[in-house]
Amino acid sequence: MSFKQFLRILLARKRTVLWTVFLFLLVAVALSVLPPKRYTASASVIVDFKAADPVMGALMPAQYVPGYMATQVDIIQSHAVALKVVKAMRLSEIAAIQRQYQEDSNGRGRFEDWLADLLLKRLDVKPSRESSVVEISYSSPDPKFAATLANAFAQAYIDQNLELKMFPAQKTAVWFDHQIQELRKNLQEAQAKVLQAQQEKGLVAVDERYDVENARLTEITNQLVQAQTAVYDNQSRAKQLKEFLAQDKNPESLPEVLASPLITSLKQQLALSEAKLNQIDAQVGRNHPEYQRVLAEVEGSKARLKDEIRAVYTGILNAARIAESREAELRAAMQRQKARLLDLNRSRDEIAVLVKELDNAQRAYEAAGARHTQSTLEGRNDQVNISVLSAASEPLRASFPRLEINLPVGLILGLFFGVTFAVLRETLDRRVRAQEDIQGALGLPVLGVLDDGAPNRGWTTGRLWPLAKKLLWPVAKMQAT
Fold first, then answer.
1. Topology at the third CATH level for domain 206-380
2. pTM assigned to the model
3. Distance CA 288, CA 283 (A)
């Protein structure tokens, strides 16, 4: 079918097209006049998802923003928000609504739930694609009621969001309160165990006492080394003395004897006394009283010298025995100090375990206290990141029905279905309307066309067709070419 044939069909079936357009326009007018009017009021709220948490100071990650906005839309359309609107507006106290509830549900179910579901049917929530603004719209036959409900839903949404924020924090704070009591009890028990262990072991500052005992062990070790050196020296001297005496040598030639100042002094006195004695012997003889007196001095000096020599090698032997006794005492003292350090190490390890348990209990108590404080602050924080951008006002024009929208829609639908019906009728009742129809249907050449010669064929065929032919002839010519 060519475009020219299509125009001929429309012109031939113009009554069908016009009646179809008229019918659709009539329906559009009826739909714009007969249904009751509904008014839509809209309130806008802004969700500031970039605002920082006043307690934690954290910002929302950018990847969570789309899901966050979708969640906010679901919260606005939730049953809980609708129940808050019912409670805030006291809609359950209206007698007309109660009667409608009885008619619709026969008293089954909760009245508030039924009313909340009824309100949600006329609620429309539209989030902005490029901003954080959410539009809350409500439709009602009463424009004032529509504006009131839109504002009520906006406020109920803010209240619900605040409740969703505060209630978990308050519940967490209560839970942490019980945990803190238990942790405080554990901390007190750990402190009591550490104190009891310190009292039983006699330890207050474990590290300080360990340092003291360790220093004491070091001192005893040094003294033992010195004592061992002294024992070695004294034993060597005693051995040398015994070997000297075993060889029947004169004890006066011992190094210790020769080094003694007292023995040297006694030897000098003895030499002087012997010289004096020899002088007196030469002068007066041995029977002279002076000779006897000096002789007594010489004998006394010799006796004192022998005693001092004996005291020297007796001292050497005694020093060896004393050094050995000192070494044994220091060795025993070192063993006792080592045992004391080992016992102190065991006590320190036991107390260290208790102190570690105390530190763990202290950290757990402090961490729980910090979380409890944080949850308490969050539970008391009545600030939300949602605010009303624009409140709903009473609409002046009805949102439904809209005559200026229904008429163009009816015209477009009427033209579409009118053309469709015209083409359908032409398909069911095919007629020859031009020579192209014969050529296309039979494939035979047309020898001639008979015209009835009527001067006036009506406004449609006499004026509209020549005009359409003049306008569409280039298009038809291009199709033929």
1. Helix Hairpins (1.10.287)
2. 0.50
3. 10
